[in-house]
Structure formats: C-alpha cells, structure tokens
Amino acid sequence: MKPIFAISVLAVTALAALPPRSRAQSAAPALHTPAPEVQLPVTVRDKHGALVTTLAKDDLTLTEDGRAQTIKSFAVQSELPFAVGLVVETSTGMMTAMEPERKAADKFIDQMLAGKGDAKSTNQLFLLHYDREVELLRDFTGDAAKLHSEIEDMSTTARSRDDRNGPEVTGDDRQRSRPGRGNAQLYDAIFLAADELMKPKAGRKVLVIFSDGVDRGSKETMNEALDAVDHAGLSIYTIYLKGEQERSGNSFPSGNQRGGIGGTYPGGGGYPGGQRKPSGGGRSDEPTVDGKKIMQQIAERTGGRFYEAKKRENLEEIYADIATELHGQYLLTYTPDMVDKEGGYHKVAIKAKKDELQVLTRAGYYAASGDGK
C-alpha cells in the first residue's frame, strides 16, 4: 500500500501547487455557449405560383455555409407584427405613374393595417421617397390616415440646380434627409431605410420599393446598401416600372461608380446589371444600366420578390399580391451548429424536398458580434 499512498500524496501536492484559477479549470468542465438563434422569413410557392402554407419543418432542408442544420421551428406566423417600409421613386421620369402608384400604395397600407375582428393591427409602416435627395415623409406609424395624407402630397423634390444643400427639412417626421448629387438616389434610399429605420426594429421587416431601378448619384454603392440590409435582417420586394428617360441615351453612372453586386455575397465589383457600351464615338466609357436586372438582384439577394408593372394599371394587383404573400409567410428558426462571435456573414440555403416547390428567403445573415452589433 505504501507506493499507492505515496503517489496519492504527490498528486494532491501537485494540485495544491497550482494557482487557484488553474485548479478551478482542472476541476470543472468547459462550458458550451450555444450560438444565438437565427430567424428567417420564408415564402413557398408551387409551380403555378400559388402560395403554399401547409408545410412542416420536415418538408425542408437547411444549410449554413454548406453545412446541414437542424430546423427548430417552421410555421406561418400570421400574428407576428410586421415593420414595413414603402420606398417610392419620385424622379421626374416616374411622375406620370404617381397617381396609380398613390392609389395602389393606399390600398396596400389599408391591407397591412387591417386588424382581425375587433383586434387592432400591430403592424407599422413608414413612407420614404427619393429623387435628387432621400426624405422620410412619415416615420413608423400604425395610423393609416397619416400615411394616406403623406402619399397624397408626395411629389418630386423642388430644388434649384444651384441649391446643392436641398430644401429646409422641418417637422418630426422629416428629420432624416440625405441631399445628394444626382436625381434618383436608389442606393442611398435603401441604405437609410435599412441602417437608420429598420435596424433597431425586431421581428419581421420588409421594404417595398417602387422604382425604375436606375441609380443616379448615390453616395452609397449597391453593395454597401445591401450589406446594410443584411445587417438589419430585412427582405425587399421590388416593383419595377420602366421610367421615361430624362436625357437622351440609356447610359447613367450607377451609384458612386465604385461597384455593385459581383459574383459573391457580400461584396463584389463592377456595374450591376450593366455593361460597357461599344466603342465608336459618344460617351462610350459609361455603362449601360439595366434597371430591371438591378431590381431582380435586390429582391433575390434579400429573399423578397421581384414584380414588373408592364402597365401602370398593374400596380394595385401587385401591391395586393405582396400583402397576401406577407400574411402567408413562414418564420423558420434554427440554432447554428457553430458559434460566431466575430459578426461574420453566413450564407443560408433552404430547399423543399418536393422539387416543384420554390422557396424564397434571404441569401444569408450577419451574426451578432461580441460588441452586440
């Protein structure tokens, strides 16, 4: 027994010699910190384009950065409130469509703020317009009358060409304004809506953008705007209407000419939806911008839906379809298998086990960093 007793004494002596912190680490197992739960809005349609609202979590597969994940819950959340932003282009090239746009947006507001039975809707909307500058006309509200009033008065920003600072902005709901250099600042509008208005909100968040898709003069690039969208965790529904050209030709500088969506998310370079005009006179060094393609890319990346209003009369039908889709949307939740405390970007892919079903969701998300951002 003496050798065994001697070994035991040595072991106790060695443990006692360790610093208190080392002894605690030796005695207790390492704690596992689970990754924060991720929530994704999901829309499912069949091959005919009809909404599918009867699926369960076992009907789908989910991957994050190529790794299979376990879906925690998947259900239609009709009672979960929405934060919705209406973003309307009011450049002179779009003004001929303003009356049908006003009527369609008014009906959309009523649909989104309509309660069930005696219950009052908990949804909230804001209204933002852009042309040569970006202006918040009405901050988040559940008051439909206030939104209708702003839509009725919405028009192209009145400003002299020599007045580069824009008009004076007054009133509580007109505090966020971004004067710019061009006359259709789409990317600045998206950035402001996402970073300043949507990011602080929790729950389901959606932007609906009415535009010709061509940016003229934004300070932000397309990628910078959509990175802000990813950080805010929202989806964008785009309504494309070809605008009247405000000058001859079809070439406009896009954003601040430092890049748009490339082959990877996030980041990339080049002009989204555009190509260089062939050489041979004129302004051959400027890109030809495809506004329709830009609007398609914005919707696809953010998990929204692209619509083309081939006629102005189609706008009411399009807005009604968006409202119906939002009310039939699923909410998917899962806990990632790996913890990311650095705030990195992660690609997600959701597929239905039935090939004929189309699943729409955001292309990815930014993890919460250690500083809470």
Helix content: 25-40%
Extended strand count: 17
Output the helix-strand order: HHEEEEEHEEHEHEHEEEHEHEEEE
Number of helices: 8
Query: Rounded to an integer, what's the Rg over CA atoms?
Result: 26 Å
> If you average the pLDDT, what whole number results?
80
Q: Which range does the strand content fall in?
A: 15-25%
Shape: globular
Oligomer: single chain
Distance between the termini: 61 Å
Unreliable runs, pLDDT <50, ≥5 residues?
4-12, 159-175, 246-286
Kindly name the structural category. Answer: alpha+beta
Descriptive notes:
This protein has 373 residues and is α+β, with helices and mostly antiparallel strands. It has eight helices and 17 strands. The chain has helices spanning 2-17, 20-27, 98-113, 144-153, 186-198, 222-232, 291-302, 315-327; strands at residues 38-45, 60-64, 67-68, 71-76, 82-89, 124-130, 133-141, 177-179, 204-211, 235-240, 274-276, 287-289, 306-308, 330-334, 345-352, 358-360, 364-366. A hairpin with a 2-residue loop joins strand 6 (124-130) and strand 7 (133-141).
